[in-house]
């Protein structure tokens, strides 16, 4: 999320939305200690993404920043090494490591998939 605001705001990462998000992230990291949840207000919810973030299922815009310009310059000449367009159960299975399993993990699979999909 900070990337989206930094791309659009004139003061980039020092913009008010980015500073506010940084404070909320700090609250979120401290949640296990404090029990205080970070709540993202509506004005900080992303509505559209810069093209360089490659969100095919989201509304995007053409970024005018350096990273957006570089992205478009190399997009057509860089080899397409990944055919993954979005996170799916099939994608998850490709990178699944059974050595990472812990007892009771099955209870959390649906939640994990939903959180990952929401994050993307």
Describe the overall structure.
- The protein is mainly alpha-helical and 120 residues long.
- The protein folds into 3 domains: 1-45, no CATH class; 48-81, no CATH class; 89-119, no CATH class.
- It is 43% helix and 3% strand.
- The chain has 6 helices and 2 strands; from the N terminus they run αααββααα.
- It has helices at residues 2-8, 16-29, 31-34, 66-75, 89-94, 109-119, and strands at residues 49-50, 60-61.
- Strands 1-2 form a two-stranded parallel sheet.
- The longest helix has 14 residues, at 16-29.
- It is flat.
- The protein starts with a helix and ends with a helix.
- The mean pLDDT is 88.
- GO terms for molecular function: RNA binding; RNA-directed RNA polymerase activity.
- It comes from Davidia involucrata (Dove tree).
- It catalyses: RNA(n) + a ribonucleoside 5'-triphosphate = RNA(n+1) + diphosphate.
Mean pLDDT: 88
Q: Which strand order does the major sheet show?
A: 1-2
Q: Give the radius of gyration.
A: 18 Å
Number of helices: 6
Number of domains: 3
Fraction in beta strands: under 5%
User: Helices and strands: which structural class?
Assistant: mainly alpha
The largest sheet, given as strand count, sense and whether it forms a barrel, is: 2 strands, parallel
Shape descriptor: flat
Helix and strand succession? HHHEEHHH
The proportion of residues forming helix, as a percent range, comes to: 40-55%
**What gap, in angstroms, lies between the N and C termini?**
11 Å
- Would you count the extended β strands for me? 2
Low-confidence stretches: none
Keywords: Nucleotidyltransferase, RNA-binding, RNA-directed RNA polymerase, RNA-mediated gene silencing, Transferase
Function: Probably involved in the RNA silencing pathway and required for the generation of small interfering RNAs (siRNAs).
GO cellular component, one term: nuclear RNA-directed RNA polymerase complex
GO molecular function, one term: RNA-directed RNA polymerase activity
């Amino acid at each position: 999320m900070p990337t989206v605001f930094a791309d659009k705001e004139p003061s980039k990462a020092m913009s008010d939305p980015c500073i506010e998000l940084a404070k909320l992230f700090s609250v979120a990291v401290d949640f296990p200690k404090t029990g205080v949840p970070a709540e993202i207000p509506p004005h900080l919810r992303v509505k559209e993404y810069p093209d360089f973030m490659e969100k095919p299922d989201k509304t995007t815009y053409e970024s005018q920043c350096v990273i957006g310009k570089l992205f478009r310059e190399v997009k057509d000449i860089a080899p397409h090494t990944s055919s993954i367009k979005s996170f799916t159960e099939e994608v998850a299975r490709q990178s699944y490591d059974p050595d990472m399993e812990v007892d009771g993990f099955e209870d959390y699979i649906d939640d994990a998939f939903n959180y990952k999909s929401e994050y993307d």
